[in-house]
């Protein structure tokens, strides 16, 4: 019993200790001129859906939930955000070549149609981020038209 108590105290101290480890936050006060929404004529319903479902992980400005202040959750979230931005950063859209944009649009369409994006771990807590069938059709149609216009 004494060993269990010692282990519990050590774990508690470690948990409290990691709370003081800083995390780089993905937040910016400005929207660059290369942002997807600024360079494309995005209908408001599609724009709202992309903001709710994609921009937290695929832009330079994440709207953090309260639990991001708790470690190790903050590390988990930052890992997802860094991965997401490495794959696609909507804020840097206009800096991509037309060929790269077309490739990204094909990928976006495929992942939304296959319910691969947004991640289940994200929509579990952010219910508004999940796509309805109608929203899938709207966003996919817009993305296909945009791809065809490149």
What do these coordinates show?
This protein is an all-alpha fold and 150 residues long. It has one domain (2-148). The chain has seven helices and no strands. The protein has helices at 2-18, 36-39, 44-53, 73-87, 98-113, 120-123, 133-148. Helix 3 crosses helix 7 and helix 5 (98-113) packs antiparallel against helix 7. The chain starts with a helix and ends with a helix. The mean pLDDT is 89.
Major sheet description: none
List the uncertain runs: none
Calculate the terminal CA-CA distance, rounded to whole Å: 68 Å
Total helical segments: 7
Secondary-structure element sequence? HHHHHHH
> Hey, roughly how much beta strand do the residues contain?
under 5%
Structural category is mainly alpha
Number of strands: 0
Estimated radius of gyration: 19 Å
How many separate structural domains? 1
Shape: elongated
**Percentage of residues in helical conformation:** 40-55%
Mean pLDDT: 89
């Amino acid at each position: 019993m004494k060993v269990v108590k010692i282990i519990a105290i050590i774990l508690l101290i470690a948990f409290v200790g990691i709370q003081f480890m800083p995390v780089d936050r993905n937040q910016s006060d400005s929207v660059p001129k290369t942002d997807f929404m600024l360079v494309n004529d995005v209908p408001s319903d599609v724009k709202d859906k992309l903001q709710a479902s994609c921009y937290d992980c695929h832009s330079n400005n994440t709207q953090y939930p309260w639990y991001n202040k708790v470690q190790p959750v903050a590390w988990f979230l930052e890992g997802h955000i860094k991965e997401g931005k490495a794959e696609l950063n909507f804020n840097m859209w206009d800096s991509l070549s037309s060929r790269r944009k077309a490739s990204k649009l094909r990928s976006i369409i495929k992942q939304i149609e296959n319910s691969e994006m947004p991640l289940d771990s994200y929509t579990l807590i952010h219910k508004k981020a999940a796509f309805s069938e109608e929203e899938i059709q709207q966003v996919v149609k817009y993305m296909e038209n945009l791809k065809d216009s490149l």
